[in-house]
Each structure stands twice: as structure tokens, then as C-alpha cells.
Design brief:
single chain, about 475 residues, alpha+beta, Arc Repressor Mutant, subunit A, OB fold (Dihydrolipoamide Acetyltransferase, E2P), 12 helices, 24 strands, about 25% helix
Length: about 475
Amino acid sequence: MERLILDRLERAPHGRAGYKQLVRELASRGASRREIEEALGRLAERGKVIELRGGQFVLASRTQEYAVGRLHMHRDGYGFVIPDTPPPGLKGDIFIPPGAAGWVMHGDRVMARITHSGRDGRAEGEIVKVLARAHPTVVGEFRCGRRSNYVAPRESRIQQSILIPEGMELPRQDAAPDRIGAPAARYARAEDLDGAIVNVEIVDYPDGDGTIVGRVIEVLGHEGDFGLDVEIVIRKHHLPHRFPAAALEEAERLSAVIPAAELARRRDFRHLHCVTIDGDTARDFDDAVWVEQMANGHFLLHVHIADVSHYVRPGSAIDQEAFRRGTSVYFPDRAVPMLPLELSTGICSLIPHQDRLVLSALLEIDRAGDVVAQEFCRGVIRSAERMTYTNVHLLLEGDAGLRERYAALAPMFERMRELALILNRRRMKRGSIDFDLPEALIELDQEGLMTGIRRAPRLIAHRIIEEFMLA
């Protein structure tokens, strides 16, 4: 259907046609009105077509009058629309002068009318329509005014204050189980919030110039409070940090006991001394490795990855929420995980001395670093140790205490280092570029306050895991 609509607009004068005309022509080919409306909606969402007034639709690639894209504001009041499809004959983004954005916020998806274009292809315009709002909530400072209360956004590129009507100042004061630091203070009057950092839900956007209205849904704290900066970042970037009830219920129903029938379907690697190697503060361990030297002099490398797919089924509540989050987000003092903790730090984490399901890559590698045989399977492991990059490095450097503590594993770490160096030489010989860039390490005191920033050490243990993952 989308292809039919695009083909029809391509043939139309100036790439433009009315909704009724499209329905009449496409209905003759068997398309329903609903199918046409849904297809037009998808095309407009992707920026392929632009919906104008009067039920007119125009190809974005054929109009120099309008453009659809994301608005990027500057704190000085001007902005740029980054078009999804650059208008023909124009170059770069569309400049929005101060005052021309009006009620629109930074990040909104908008339609702009091009008011001026120069010979160099640069264009200037004004916002005529908001297609999608970027900020359902806004973090800011609550201020008590003489006539009304309002919130001043912390984001300097959002310059509109948010009116807080009477009765919408105090949020529901439920416990927040995912907060860190001191418990949230309780407030009885709006005046008690003056100067507090709050999270506001937008309840009304004006159609034109006017006031944005919101209600306070969270009080995050006051300047200087422990953990406030992280709370602000999470909400400012709209990171999903609370799992829906359905996902939590699914996670709670999952059992850590592996059924015998499932074990029978998998390769059993529990007799091998697999180990995880991660950072000192890591809480979730999603890969384990093991290396042995074969009788023919080759290396046998096992890389085991936690088998999340066994627990997270397509279309489940956990699957949908993980898709929405896309990744885990790590902060100096915590993480916002992609999966509920029951999985991310529980049954899908390769905890030492616990049976865990994995997807396994078994590689035979010769002395030149070439993979001469490979096999992939579903398996079960029992990690022998939770190692850190620091401890593996010190062990390989001859630390007597660590070599005694991990005497049974020390020969394997020696083989790991030898194999990692072989793989690295092979990779460099093939022309690989090594982006070995310095990484900043933020140092915190016992109260969570930053005390300094230093360069993170780059150890052979990091190289071992990197090379094994690339192998």
C-alpha cells in the first residue's frame, strides 16, 4: 500500500494529491479507507510524505515549501530543523530564528514552512505544526511565584516555563524502591517545594503561543543531595527506569532450577573450569571463557554467553520492555538494566558455582591464530571463579598471593595470555585498526561523591577478553 501511494504521488503534479483523490483511486484497486489512512500515517511518520492543510499530501522529496524533521534548539533561542528528507535544492538544516519556535520544545518532531532560501542553498523557516512531542516529562526547579507556581526546566534548550496549577503541586508520595541515597522528603504544602528539583508531567500543550501546563509527579531533591545528579540524568533523557508490572510478574515466575529435560538437551561443560573476567564493580556476568592446549599444539577456546533467549520469549512482557530499553545504561553508582534484576543479576548472570544456561562457541585455533574448526551449541556451565581484570593482570605479573589463591587456574590464564597475543598479532597483520583510546575512570568516596577522575588502566586481561570476543 505504501508503495502504491508513493507511486501515485510521484505521478501527480508537484508530487501532491488530496486525501479524497487518493482514496478514490486506490479503492478501485481493492484498498480500504482504513488501509490507506494507516499507510499515509506510516509514511508521514517516516517523513516520506507531508500532510498539509485541507487533506493534501505531498512528497517530501518534491516540495521546497515544507520540511519535516527534528527540532534542535540552542540555549540562545534559535534552532535548526534537521529534515528527514532534505527539500530539493536546499542544503543543510533549516534555520529557525529566535522567536519562530514559539511553543515548540527542543527535540520535538515538527513541520516547518520554509520562509527564505538563499542562493547557497541554506534555508530559514518557521514552525507550523508539531507532529510528535519529545518530552512527556520535564525536570526542573519548582518556584513559587506571586500569582502562580511554575517549574523552570533544567535543560537550557527548553526555555518555556511550565505552569503548575493549584492542586497539581504535590505528587503522590509513594516509596520509590529504585532510589539510592536518603529517602525522598515528604511535603505538605506547595511552598515547601520552593527550590526543589522536580519531575513534571506535561498535561496540556498550547495550540499556539501560550502556557505549557504540567503537574509534579516526583520530587527528586534539592541541589547537593546525594544521587540527585543521576536521578536528573535518568529523567532528563527519559530512560525507562521502572519495569511495568507485567514484566516484573513474569520475572518473578521464572525458576532458577534448570529442569532435567533441558539439561539433557544441552552440552554439559560443568566439569570445565570456566571463568568470568569483568571489572571490579561489575554485577552482571554475561560471558565466561576457557582455554586448553590440544595434543596437536592448537588451542581450544570456549566462549560461553548467557542464554537469555531461554527465559525471554518473543512477544512476552519482558521482551517488549527490553526492546523498548534497547540496552543497559551504566552510571558510576548504579545501572539501569535492560532486563529485570531477577535475570540481569540472577539467573542470566554467570555467577560462580551456579549452574547456568549458555550459548557456546567452541573454537580450535592454530599457532598462527587461524580458526581451523568451530562449533556452536547450547550448553550448561558452572563458573569456577568470578575474576577481575585487576586480579588476572596481577596474577600474570607474578603476584605470589594471587598465584597461590588461584593455583589451579594459573596455567590456564598463562594459556589465555599466549592465545590473546597470537590473535592480536594475526588481527594486526590483516590490517585491523586498534582504537586503544584512554578511558576515564570516575572515583567516588564512601558517600558517593566524586573525588577525582583518572585514566583507567589498560591491562592484558582486557586484551584477553577483547580478543576472545573477536575470535
